[in-house]
Amino acid sequence: MIGNLNHIAIAVPDLKAATALYRDTLGATVSAPQPLPEHGVTVVFIELPNTKVELLEPLGEASPIAKYLESNPSGGMHHICYEVEDILASRDILKAAGARVLGDGEPKTGAHGKPVLFLHPKDFNGTLVELEQV
What pTM was computed for the model? Predict the structure, then answer.
């Protein structure tokens, strides 16, 4: 069902500083910041030869990333994203197997303009999993 690793997301308290770290210290290619108010975050993507790293900064106090950073003030790995061919079929298979889909269970539009879903970390060894349709 799952395909390629699309990205690993890291929550950061200061997007500008984190972007500079990856760009200036590690020599990575970074995107411009992209606000995603529907998800409560601003994101920057770091392009790697085989995948991407997504830096997440809270956008507003109600952001799920703000809550994450309360427990992890320095930031840290937030989720991992896998690609799937058919997000609705994948959702239905996972739900039938007992996995919990977060939110209302319907795909939302993600940072790449494609449908995404999140799966409960308690069902995946403590890791928040995002699925993105390719």
Answer: 0.94
